[in-house]
Amino acid sequence: MKCGLFHTPYNQPQRTPKQIFDWSIELAQICDKAGFSDFLVGEHYTLALENIPMPEAIIASAAMVTEKLRFAPMAHLLPYHDPATLAIRIGWLSQVLEGRYYLGVGPGGHHTDAILHGFENLSQLPARQIEALTIMEKVWQEEPFRFAGDFYRAGFPGPDDMPGYDVTIAKNGLWKESPFEIAVTALSANSNSMKFAGERNYSPISFFGGVDQMISHWETWSTAMREAGFTPERERLRVCREVFVADNDAEAKRRAISGGLGYSWEHYLLPIYKKFKLLDGIIKDSGVDISADEVDMDFLAEHVWLCGSSETVTQKIEALVDKVGPWGMLCINSHDNIDDMAPANESLQRFAQEVMPKVGASVPA
Ligand SMILES: Cc1cc2nc3c(=O)[nH]c(=O)nc-3n(C[C@H](O)[C@H](O)[C@H](O)COP(=O)(O)O)c2cc1C
């Protein structure tokens, strides 16, 4: 199993864009040195507690000061972009990063961003995501076409478009030296995104919502893959989790609750998880007789976050693998540790260097 960082990020609302940018670059360097394989950057436009509207700016800057880390926007929200423009920018950046870049796509998960872009609700977005990706795939072929769809128009120029003069067309297609990966984000228990990902041989990446949800994501994706004639491989599954590692369980819990992880859950994530009923599966797994309204930091540290010594965190992952089967990458959600980076950075390092090798050794690929 490999490890990645999912840097949406969960920042505190008073942070300036410059603070978030500088923190992101420093964090990428820490992850690179610690042995993380992927660094994934979210895209949001109106959320004070997840404030990166331009993941590619972070990605390009961080790539220049790191060596091995692979980067992806996770996710470019396709309905909010012009697909042809985005396809060219992605192709260009994939060549700049020479194989250290792949693409995450999502329809957009927040209605405030949807309103900013002229939509009234999120249900208008998934169909646009699919059409946008169809256009982007065509642009990356770098062959002449014209396309007029339900939502977008696009094309690619060829010799017939240049009567009487010649324009040399820039080679801004995808980096071709290695296969280009596209990952689709998924959240719901019965996820249409997982089906769509499988139908097109795109990789799946999930937020964790409990054992049943993880099994359902694998089943939906792998069935769609097989039906479309592709081979589903468990290494392609990525799952995002909260993680905090320290010397011992009590210290990990104390640091997690008093640091950025505790702040985000108390002020931001817990209300969202309650509102959208995302805790149901996790409460069921815990076996604790508790309602979503009664969930507190203590419950989260025990049952939701992978929190503890490296031995405890390893055991928690192995116990989950026993129930859902192996998967390829565990992505740690990043939380604001700008005021005191040392404990969270130590946790990242211990996770990559103490937990991952043990999990990798005991879990079949
Ligand atoms: C790993 C991951 C990353 C995501 N990143 C973003 C993001 O950066 N911006 C955003 O608005 N939504 C993001 N989402 C949410 C998606 O836009 C979308 O709501 C979700 O994938 C829908 O999944 P479903 O079809 O299973 O319900 C992310 C979801 C996941 C699982």
Report on this structure.
This protein is an alpha/beta fold. The protein has a single domain (2-247, 308-362), classed as Luciferase-like domain (TIM Barrel). 45% of the residues lie in helices and 16% in strands. The protein contains 13 helices and 13 strands. The chain has helices at residues 17-34, 55-64, 83-96, 111-116, 126-140, 192-199, 211-227, 249-258, 260-275, 280-286, 297-304, 310-324, 341-362; strands spanning 2-10, 38-41, 70-73, 76-77, 103-106, 145-148, 153-156, 182-186, 203-207, 238-241, 243-245, 306-308, 329-335. The strands form three sheets. The chain has a nine-stranded parallel beta sheet with strand order 3-2-1-13-10-9-8-5-4. Helix 1 packs across helix 2, helix 6 (192-199) packs parallel to helix 7 (211-227) and helix 12 (310-324) packs across helix 13 (341-362). The longest helix is centred in the C-terminal third of the chain and has 22 residues, at 341-362. The termini are close together. Flavin mononucleotide binds at residues 6, 8, 42-44, 74-75, 77, 106-110, 113, 185-188, 191-193, 205-207, 240.
Question: For the record, what CATH class applies?
Answer: Alpha Beta
Number of helices: 13
Counted beta strands? 13
Shape: globular
The CATH level-2 architecture is identified as Alpha-Beta Barrel
Proportion of residues in helical segments: 40-55%
Assembly status: single chain
The overall average pLDDT, rounded, is: 96
- pLDDT < 50 stretches: none
Please trace the helix and strand order, writing H or E for each element: EHEHEEHEHHEEEHEHEEHHHHEHEH
The CATH topology: TIM Barrel
The CATH H-level superfamily is: Luciferase-like domain
The number of domains is 1
